[in-house]
Amino acid sequence: MELREATDHCDRRGPAGHGRRTAAGQEGAGGVTVGTVRSRSFAPLLALVAASAAAASSPATAAVPTLDHIIVVVMENKDWAQVRDAPYTTSLRLSGAEFLNSYGVTQDASQPNYLAMWAGSTFGVTANTCPPPGSPYTAENLGHALEAAGKTWRAYSENLPSTGSNVCTSGGSSPLYTRKHDPWTDFSNLDHNNERVYSDLALDIANNTLPNLAYVIPNNCDNSHNTGCTVTIGDTWLSNNLPAMIAAVDTTGIVILTWDEDSGTPGNNNHILTVFKGPRVKSGYQSAVPVNHNNVLRTICEALGVAPMGQAAIDPPITDVWYEGALDVPTVAGGGIRLSAPMPNPSTGGVTAQLTLPEAARVEASIYDIAGHAIRRLMSGTRSGPVELRWDARRENGSPAGAGIYFLKVRAGARALQQKAVLLR
């Protein structure tokens, strides 16, 4: 997972007076319908028409499913229209669910938006003061709620100096890390050992210890916040990092990509991009239902089985994006055929897995990268009994495979089997 350097940082804000929005009453929420920008003078009526049309034409909605893993990735200070057509972001929204009417809760500053994401309240905060006024807070929040329920959470922040650090800034005069983007730091009723450096995410994925909830906070260049850190830089970071997260949540989780607020453009009304991605999410779906950070928080709470807090206890969850059909999950074992996990895992070099065949079968075994490309064929032919599959961590042309997540995919007769291998360099 890559890291980029930042230049200077600067929060660009729109006009004052843009307060919290709820799904029941969005300021300018009807300014966008499915795929079309409309005049804001008819905004409320158009929002109602768009939502009604979407409800009439789309499959029946489902309750929020129970999920084992949710990863939330937060980007910075860009309008919906600025980022949705970036190459990787486009591929993500076309294969996931995009919210056409998603809004930040305030344009005052970044910090209150992050507090709302975490606890359903801005706590009266209107600026990026560190620490925020009134903190440390004792109010209910995602971290405390999950710990009380016996579930796990972690936040992974680029350029955080160390586990649990409460510094205000880190990483130069135009800081790469700023505490205003890490709201968990401001609460006294949760375990601050869950506030981790970003490299720990790769280790947790490799060790199959991904928490039930993970917040991922790119640094202030990778999130396209700082001056000179463009949408292209942010989109490239997403393309290099999100595929591993999407693979890690597997069939029982989702990845949520969102922005904290817009760029402050007058008239944009804090319109941001939010995308859900995962097997339980309708593919290529566009939701016209107005949502904000509180609706997303409510949805996270319901999916993980904890009581919603703050405004999230009032605002409704997101229910129109969920896929209700049976999932097409690759077969890992069956009919006496078994494929062991590669060992060692993670590895800094080669890995070995054991394929067990109760009778002779045609076997095709290859290594695939996170993008789904076959990079090395391991075996092709008829085999029986115990079969050792070795990969020397090299590509077909002999060059070393880079650090990351790879998949050992085996076709044995009519059976499809798959295991994950992680390389550390």
Entry summary:
This protein is α/β, with parallel strands linked by helices and 425 residues long. It has helices at 43-57, 80-83, 87-95, 110-119, 142-148, 199-206, 231-249, 293-304, and strands spanning 32-33, 36-37, 69-75, 97-103, 153-157, 169-170, 177-178, 195-197, 213-217, 253-259, 271-277, 285-287, 291-292, 338-339, 351-368, 374-391, 404-412, 415-423.
Written overview of the protein:
The protein has 425 residues and is an alpha/beta fold. It folds into 2 domains: 29-313, Alkaline Phosphatase, subunit A, CATH 3.40.720; 338-423, Immunoglobulin-like (Sandwich). Helix content is 20%, strand content 26%. The chain contains 8 helices and 18 strands. The chain has helices at residues 43-57, 80-83, 87-95, 110-119, 142-148, 199-206, 231-249, 293-304; strands at 32-33, 36-37, 69-75, 97-103, 153-157, 169-170, 177-178, 195-197, 213-217, 253-259, 271-277, 285-287, 291-292, 338-339, 351-368, 374-391, 404-412, 415-423. The strands form 4 sheets. Strands 3, 4, 5, 8, 9, 10, 11, 12 and 13 form a 9-stranded mixed β-sheet that branches. Helix 4 packs parallel to helix 8 (293-304). The longest helix has 19 residues, at 231-249. Mean pLDDT is 84; it is low at 1-61 and 328-334.
Q: What descriptive keywords fit this protein?
A:
nine-stranded mixed β-sheet, five-stranded antiparallel β-sheet, Immunoglobulin-like, elongated, Alkaline Phosphatase, subunit A, 425 residues, alpha/beta, 18 strands
